[in-house]
């Protein structure tokens, strides 16, 4: 396939599929040793062998399926993605609950190679398949008084042990300002590495906003709402001093418990050097969206 890239990324830059799905295992090992002790001068990357399929599918993070790193691998297969529907409501001309095939049918599916930067200070490069969110919103007919887009993930208590245990206040919810949602970099991803989206990674459709920290990219979406007021979002509600609504990748605004100035690239080895974090994760073309904002107060 021909991939649309930015920042001179190529398919060769993509984090191996095994490492992508196994990143939580790698970070768990790093945490056990202490991230501070892993810091080295930014420079040469060290090779990291791809993990086995068993390792790849054993570690992930999807709280609806439990907080243990092996929980999604054990439990996410229970996610029922058959006859998936997405409700589009709020300030739109064409509200309704649509089968996924109808919601995205006829829209262009593109291949995008994007950096992914986690608020936990690790990063990777991922080739996604998806549709520009703007195309879906245009089809819905956004009304003139809409200012934000709110998203809601699936809740299936019978299939999600984390929901039954009340790990978070479910459903998981997220949101974007309308101009962010309409930016051509923002996609609704339906696959990765030329395969359908794995269940533990947000099947069958999830948001990807490459200049923001990963927690903004909500998984397994069942509702898209156009609203006038800033919507409530899960992590911002739980810890507003740690997780801002905007969540733009910004090396000058630290998490209260760790620096965001550098990151560790997954795939570089457990003791790999750290690399500088790029403003907006390297996607400088979005900078105009935030002109005049105090990016330390509105983080």
Automatic annotation (TrEMBL):
<feature type="binding site">
    <location>
        <position position="201"/>
    </location>
    <ligand>
        <name>Mo-molybdopterin</name>
    </ligand>
</feature>
<dbReference type="InterPro" id="IPR036374">
    <property type="entry name" value="OxRdtase_Mopterin-bd_sf"/>
</dbReference>
<comment type="subunit">
    <text>Heterodimer of a catalytic subunit (MsrP) and a heme-binding subunit (MsrQ).</text>
</comment>
<feature type="binding site">
    <location>
        <position position="60"/>
    </location>
    <ligand>
        <name>Mo-molybdopterin</name>
    </ligand>
</feature>
<dbReference type="InterPro" id="IPR000572">
    <property type="entry name" value="OxRdtase_Mopterin-bd_dom"/>
</dbReference>
<protein>
    <recommendedName>
        <fullName>Protein-methionine-sulfoxide reductase catalytic subunit MsrP</fullName>
        <ecNumber>1.8.5.-</ecNumber>
    </recommendedName>
</protein>
<feature type="binding site">
    <location>
        <position position="153"/>
    </location>
    <ligand>
        <name>Mo-molybdopterin</name>
    </ligand>
</feature>
<dbReference type="GO" id="GO:0043546">
    <property type="term" value="F:molybdopterin cofactor binding"/>
</dbReference>
<keyword id="KW-0500">Molybdenum</keyword>
<feature type="domain" description="Oxidoreductase molybdopterin-binding">
    <location>
        <begin position="78"/>
        <end position="235"/>
    </location>
</feature>
<comment type="function">
    <text>Part of the MsrPQ system that repairs oxidized periplasmic proteins containing methionine sulfoxide residues (Met-O), using respiratory chain electrons. Thus protects these proteins from oxidative-stress damage caused by reactive species of oxygen and chlorine generated by the host defense mechanisms. MsrPQ is essential for the maintenance of envelope integrity under bleach stress, rescuing a wide series of structurally unrelated periplasmic proteins from methionine oxidation.</text>
</comment>
<keyword id="KW-0479">Metal-binding</keyword>
<keyword id="KW-0560">Oxidoreductase</keyword>
<keyword id="KW-0732">Signal</keyword>
<dbReference type="GO" id="GO:0030091">
    <property type="term" value="P:protein repair"/>
</dbReference>
<feature type="binding site">
    <location>
        <position position="118"/>
    </location>
    <ligand>
        <name>Mo-molybdopterin</name>
    </ligand>
</feature>
<feature type="binding site">
    <location>
        <begin position="217"/>
        <end position="219"/>
    </location>
    <ligand>
        <name>Mo-molybdopterin</name>
    </ligand>
</feature>
<feature type="binding site">
    <location>
        <position position="206"/>
    </location>
    <ligand>
        <name>Mo-molybdopterin</name>
    </ligand>
</feature>
<dbReference type="InterPro" id="IPR022867">
    <property type="entry name" value="MsrP"/>
</dbReference>
<dbReference type="GO" id="GO:0046872">
    <property type="term" value="F:metal ion binding"/>
</dbReference>
<dbReference type="GO" id="GO:0016672">
    <property type="term" value="F:oxidoreductase activity, acting on a sulfur group of donors, quinone or similar compound as acceptor"/>
</dbReference>
<dbReference type="Pfam" id="PF00174">
    <property type="entry name" value="Oxidored_molyb"/>
</dbReference>
<feature type="binding site">
    <location>
        <begin position="63"/>
        <end position="64"/>
    </location>
    <ligand>
        <name>Mo-molybdopterin</name>
    </ligand>
</feature>
<comment type="similarity">
    <text>Belongs to the MsrP family.</text>
</comment>
């Amino acid at each position: 396939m021909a991939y649309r890239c930015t920042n001179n990324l190529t398919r060769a830059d993509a984090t191996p599929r095994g490492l992508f799905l196994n990143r939580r295992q790698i970070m768990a090992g790093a945490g056990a040793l202490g991230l501070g002790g892993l810091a080295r001068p930014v420079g040469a990357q060290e090779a990291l062998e791809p993990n086995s399929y068993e390792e790849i599918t054993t570690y992930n993070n999807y709280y609806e399926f439990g907080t243990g790193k092996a929980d999604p691998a054990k439990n996410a297969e229970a996610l029922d993605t058959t006859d998936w529907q997405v409700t589009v409501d709020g300030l739109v001309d064409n509200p309704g609950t649509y089968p996924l095939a109808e919601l995205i049918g006829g829209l262009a599916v593109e291949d995008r190679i994007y950096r992914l930067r986690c608020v936990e200070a690790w990063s990777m490069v991922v080739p996604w398949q998806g549709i520009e969110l703007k195309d879906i919103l245009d089809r819905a007919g956004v009304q003139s008084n809409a200012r934000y887009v709110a998203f809601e993930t699936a809740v299936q208590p019978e299939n999600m042990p984390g929901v039954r245990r009340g790990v978070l206040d479910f459903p998981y919810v997220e949101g974007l300002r309308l101009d962010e949602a309409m930016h051509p970099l923002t996609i609704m991803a339906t696959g990765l590495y030329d395969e359908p989206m794995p269940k533990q990674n947000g099947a069958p459709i999830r948001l990807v906003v490459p200049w923001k920290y990963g927690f903004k990219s909500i998984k397994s979406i069942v509702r898209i709402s156009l609203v006038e007021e800033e919507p409530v979002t899960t992590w911002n509600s739980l810890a507003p001093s740690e997780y801002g609504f905007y969540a733009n990748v910004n090396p000058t605004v630290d998490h209260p418990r760790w620096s965001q100035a550098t990151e560790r690239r997954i795939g570089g080895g457990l003791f790999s050097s750290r690399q500088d974090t790029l403003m907006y994760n390297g996607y400088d073309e979005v900078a105009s969206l935030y002109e005049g904002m105090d990016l330390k107060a509105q983080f």
